[in-house]
């Protein structure tokens, strides 16, 4: 048994979609949630910038004594996970492998759509993993740069969001995909708008589910499960007086997620 917290991070409120699955599946686990609001969005940054950010947050969370780190961000998972694995002794998992495995298991017509940030789509990492599982899969990746700024602004029900949903979903639907991966942890927060446009016949894959199942497997195997000790701490970054600072993020993050 091990009551140390799990570290979980994202550029903003997106990782809260992973946290909510974690709290359902592993309610006894304590968590430090890091929302990197000062450096949002990650999706338009270069790989070098994303790797540097990742290293910085991993060092912070490792220093806080976490027992496992979940990179609750597709962009960081795609770009920095492999690079960072050698840099910390703490077990580290990302969201992309679990998301790809779930999509592979549920698609029937072998046509899978991926909604993701520009940085994630550029790497084609979902396509690579999925076609390594089955070369006859067809994967269509769609960059959605307008989604994260609108979600973080609390504009999930705005006409701008509706227009962006149509712009990004229409090409995927024209390809006849039967499965859609939320390839950015922010996107389950606009699931209502996405389903309203694309309908309920598609299989919607939230990689958070497979990611938390993997976390559970590791904690069980390594004998790291906690016993009834759950606490959740929210840390956010902000720019104050031109400086990057970490603050108590409860208000900032939870307000953003419910807007
Ligand atoms: N939620 C993140 C992801 O899964 C990051 C989005 C962003 O900051 O652009 O990719």
TrEMBL record:
<comment type="similarity">
    <text>Belongs to the aspartate/glutamate racemases family.</text>
</comment>
<feature type="binding site">
    <location>
        <begin position="42"/>
        <end position="43"/>
    </location>
    <ligand>
        <name>substrate</name>
    </ligand>
</feature>
<feature type="binding site">
    <location>
        <begin position="185"/>
        <end position="186"/>
    </location>
    <ligand>
        <name>substrate</name>
    </ligand>
</feature>
<keyword id="KW-0413">Isomerase</keyword>
<feature type="binding site">
    <location>
        <begin position="10"/>
        <end position="11"/>
    </location>
    <ligand>
        <name>substrate</name>
    </ligand>
</feature>
<comment type="function">
    <text>Provides the (R)-glutamate required for cell wall biosynthesis.</text>
</comment>
<feature type="active site" description="Proton donor/acceptor">
    <location>
        <position position="73"/>
    </location>
</feature>
<keyword id="KW-0133">Cell shape</keyword>
<dbReference type="InterPro" id="IPR015942">
    <property type="entry name" value="Asp/Glu/hydantoin_racemase"/>
</dbReference>
<dbReference type="Pfam" id="PF01177">
    <property type="entry name" value="Asp_Glu_race"/>
</dbReference>
<dbReference type="GO" id="GO:0009252">
    <property type="term" value="P:peptidoglycan biosynthetic process"/>
</dbReference>
<feature type="active site" description="Proton donor/acceptor">
    <location>
        <position position="184"/>
    </location>
</feature>
<dbReference type="InterPro" id="IPR033134">
    <property type="entry name" value="Asp/Glu_racemase_AS_2"/>
</dbReference>
<keyword id="KW-0961">Cell wall biogenesis/degradation</keyword>
<protein>
    <recommendedName>
        <fullName>Glutamate racemase</fullName>
        <ecNumber>5.1.1.3</ecNumber>
    </recommendedName>
</protein>
<dbReference type="InterPro" id="IPR001920">
    <property type="entry name" value="Asp/Glu_race"/>
</dbReference>
<dbReference type="InterPro" id="IPR004391">
    <property type="entry name" value="Glu_race"/>
</dbReference>
<dbReference type="InterPro" id="IPR018187">
    <property type="entry name" value="Asp/Glu_racemase_AS_1"/>
</dbReference>
<keyword id="KW-0573">Peptidoglycan synthesis</keyword>
<dbReference type="GO" id="GO:0008881">
    <property type="term" value="F:glutamate racemase activity"/>
</dbReference>
<comment type="pathway">
    <text>Cell wall biogenesis; peptidoglycan biosynthesis.</text>
</comment>
<feature type="binding site">
    <location>
        <begin position="74"/>
        <end position="75"/>
    </location>
    <ligand>
        <name>substrate</name>
    </ligand>
</feature>
<dbReference type="GO" id="GO:0071555">
    <property type="term" value="P:cell wall organization"/>
</dbReference>
<dbReference type="GO" id="GO:0008360">
    <property type="term" value="P:regulation of cell shape"/>
</dbReference>
